[in-house]
């Protein structure tokens, strides 16, 4: 039995059938002590690749299977998907190896279907060069893009309406790529030069961030949690798009700031860092177990101005009215902007989820606005690409809350972003295919000082 593929198969089963989060299921799979570095890389490739291309793989399998996919057992379908992924997308894996190892897995997990799996995969192998995604026989553009780039059709349809077909296709293509691995330098403890030198001495290739001096890109790295710079609190793993939220909030030393949806504390600790660990930050989160995570991160980074507590942002907290200089609402959202990092998001989210999410976002934003002092600042951000979670939520809030106004983001943005569209209207929209970051929306509003 191929141990590596078996571990990958079990992880896929956990994610697709038992609804485990891909990053957590993969982390558990990679904890197997029998795996060397090469094995770990292959398990990661098989898991993330098979999840990323799931809809396209199902479309390929359905071209060769007389049995409807919905009638297949879970194990059969997962073995077929993983085998098809290797045949169609992994040039370094011989198709014969993909077929043989899949048959061996079937002998253990789907004994009755061994012959069926073997026949389907060998048929796909024989016809591989004739399978093209360029001329998919579907009438709608949204359906064609859905199959070609492996995205739910309701998403491709919405994005075509929001952005147009050409923009949507570029966006979909970029969301299939593996993202850069970013870290934030903790300037409370160390310097940029010192971190670069330390990482280089550990044979880690370091590139500068695209926009921010405290951001670094690491090459060929997927985990630094065991490294000295991480353990010593000198760096924090965070995408550059997320760091830009703090830049737009523009926290200053000795201010009183609230982060209403704070866990795991990436933005909260960045805010504290920007305040030079002077002032006060209240960090709220609805999940009790995540409060410990905020506190652990703050302690590791040498920050002591964060007070973390469990609180539901949907409940209005009267005692905090008009208290804060600045309030950050990094709202719960669909997560479509981080699909490169968590590809299972696109299968876990359903079309009907969006309406309830938007209502939650509106309620949290309204409640949070009550905590802002006169003349204070309110920042709303999501890692979503969908306009109804972003511009629409902000627009609806402003129309119903006349005491707030947008502020130009130009003074707070680095040169590479200060001339983007809508920046003067208080909005920054980041896209993977344009900016090389996660998809993000950030807006800045000010409460008028009457």
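-> sequence recovered:
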């Amino acid at each position: 039995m191929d141990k590596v593929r078996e571990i990958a198969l079990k992880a896929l089963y956990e994610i697709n059938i038992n609804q485990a989060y891909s990053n957590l299921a993969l982390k558990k799979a990679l904890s197997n002590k029998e795996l060397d570095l090469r094995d770990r890389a292959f398990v990661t490739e098989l898991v993330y690749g098979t999840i990323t291309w799931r809809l396209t793989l199902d479309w390929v399998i359905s071209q060769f299977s007389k049995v409807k996919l919905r009638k297949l057992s879970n194990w059969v379908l997962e073995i077929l998907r993983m085998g098809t992924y290797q045949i169609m997308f992994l040039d370094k894996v011989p198709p014969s190896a993909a077929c043989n190892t899949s048959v061996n897995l079937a002998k253990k997990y789907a004994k009755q279907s061994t012959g069926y799996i073997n026949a389907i995969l060998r048929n796909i192998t024989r016809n591989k060069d004739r399978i093209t995604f360029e001329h998919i026989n579907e009438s709608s553009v949204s359906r064609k893009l859905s199959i070609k780039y492996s995205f739910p059709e309701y998403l491709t349809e919405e994005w075509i309406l929001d952005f147009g077909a050409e923009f949507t296709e570029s966006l979909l293509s970029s969301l299939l790529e593996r993202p850069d691995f970013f870290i934030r330098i903790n300037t409370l403890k160390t310097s940029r030069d010192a971190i670069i030198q330390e990482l280089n001495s550990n044979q880690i290739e370091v590139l500068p961030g695209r926009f921010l001096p405290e951001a670094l890109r690491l090459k060929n790295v997927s985990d630094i949690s065991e490294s000295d710079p991480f353990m010593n609190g000198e760096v924090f793993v965070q995408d550059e798009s997320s760091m830009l939220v703090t830049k737009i909030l523009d926290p200053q030393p000795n201010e009183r700031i609230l982060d209403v949806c704070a866990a795991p504390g990436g933005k909260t600790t960045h805010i504290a860092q920007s305040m030079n660990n002077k002032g006060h930050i209240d960090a709220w989160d609805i999940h009790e177990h995540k409060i410990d995570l905020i506190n652990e991160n703050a302690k590791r980074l040498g920050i002591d101005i964060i007070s973390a507590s469990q609180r539901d942002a949907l409940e209005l907290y009267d005692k905090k009215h008009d208290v804060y200089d600045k309030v950050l609402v990094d709202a719960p959202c669909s997560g479509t902007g981080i699909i490169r990092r968590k590809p299972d998001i696109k299968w876990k989210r359903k079309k009907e989820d969006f309406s309830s999410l938007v209502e939650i976002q509106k309620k949290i934003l309204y409640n949070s606005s009550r905590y802002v002092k006169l003349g204070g600042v309110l920042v709303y951000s999501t890692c979503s690409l969908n306009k109804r979670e972003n511009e629409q939520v902000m627009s609806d809030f402003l129309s119903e809350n006349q005491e707030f106004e947008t502020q130009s983001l130009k003074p707070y943005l680095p040169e590479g972003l200060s001339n983007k569209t809508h920046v003067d209207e208080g909005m920054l929209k980041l896209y993977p295919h344009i900016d090389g970051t996660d998809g993000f929306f950030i807006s800045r509003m000010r409460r008028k000082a009457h």
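The longest strand covers residues 372-382.
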